[in-house]
Amino acid sequence: MQNLIEIKGVRHAYRTDAGPLPVLDGLEISVAEGGFVAVVGPSGCGKSTLTRLIAGLMKPDEGEVWLHGERVKGPRSTVGMAFQNPVLLEWRSILKNVLLPLEIVPSKLSKRQAEERARFLLSLVGLEGFEDKRPSELSGGMRQRASLCRALIHQPDVLILDEPFGALDAFTREDLWQTMHRVKEREPFTGVLITHDLRESIFLADQVVVLSGRPARTQYVLDIPSEGPRTLEDLYTPVAAEQLNILRHQIQIAQGRAPAEEARI
Amino acid sequence: MTGWKTVRGIAVPLIAVVIFLAFWEWLVWFNGWPKFKMAAPSDLPPAFERHWNLFLTMGWQTLWRTVLGLLLAVLFGTLLGMIMGFSRLMRDALYPLLVGFNAIPKATVVPIVALMFVGQHDFNTVLLAFMISFFPIAVSVSIGLSTLEPEYRDILRSLGASQATIFWKIALPKTLPEFFGALKVAVTLAFIGTNLMEIVSPHGRGLGALFDSGRTNSDFPLMFAVLIALAFLGIVLYYIVVALEKIFAGWAERAPG
Lengths: 265, 257
Fold this sequence. Notes:
The structure holds two protein chains of two kinds. Chain A is of the alpha/beta class. Helix content of chain A is 31%, strand content 25%. Chain A has seven helices and ten strands. Chain B is mainly α.
């Protein structure tokens, strides 16, 4: 199977007044079509830079980013993005917010079809009946759901999620995890999830990539095999505990708080 | 219950105005001030009646010059704000100039402008109204644009949207609440500009000139009548801006509670 996302030997440094600040150093990540990779790592290790590279919002100093067998040279309409800040437009209704990308990306859908699709996505994430509400009338979790619909409306190949659930309370977050599984079942996509939450990473992803501290390289990759649909109960099994243990240990190595000899790829 | 609330909403401010006018009337009566020293509220209706025509023509002149100056300020201020909001370099270059210009009391600019464009009273007045009112607009637009969270740009930019699209779809509507806030300040400032020029220019026109003729004759009822007329125009323009704000930026107002 061809890998949909291929990140090869990416190096990047930000230019600051104090000289270049390397953030990524030899990053290797590949995601199969339909795969879902979670990227975890210490704070400030360059995870957000990674999302901007995949989205084509910036170019790496060295190395290559490939999507669908094509080298990424700039923004492309086959990408959907959602951030920790849902950035909904306050002057638009929820429905109009979800439809926003279709005003930019050329689409085969008629106006009516587009609206139907938006309504379908909103119902999929549990927001039916809120189409005509303003973002300010919604709770944080609901806004994040709407933001997810907006990221999916133009049927992107790649969904980039940059800590989308980071600002939500624990119960809302778990609710949204389940929503994500429901969405992926109906609207298949290849996903990259940036997160700080190890439980989130093993619940949502089929592969967890641990980045080292800055400058970040791929330090460890953990496969999360899965039989059938996952439930929240799966997080409380010995298997999950073992996975979390491995990941926590790897994060400690990345933070420099544990000896590195056990690190492997 | 709501009926009582509307009655209260109208009655309370009305009673306050009546008390204020009664106190003013009493103050003039108590001190025995003659009309060449101070005017009482009861002197104002006769003053309006006597100069009815003048109030209409002069009021109109003041109004159109103020509105024209304000429109120019909106155009120029928005443009300047956009330039400073989008370009860090231009902001660094222009901001000190702008602050310096704004720090000059505009009363001192009046004689300069009046001398430079002698006799062009309409032009001078519009120019001053413009000069005094573009600053808050430029500043608010530039701040609104430069503080736009990067994620807002990224959601559209990642889809390949151009800078112009990002501006029309996101940056512009997002700055509207700040813009209208500044416009409310600018409306009042523009009136100050028009009146400064109208009062100071010899052979001026407009309500300011009418005020000045009242001054030379120590006609206090006329002077106070002009003040009331100016306040009336100011209130009308202010509420026009408020109405526009409701239409274009009503979304920024949150429901109470």
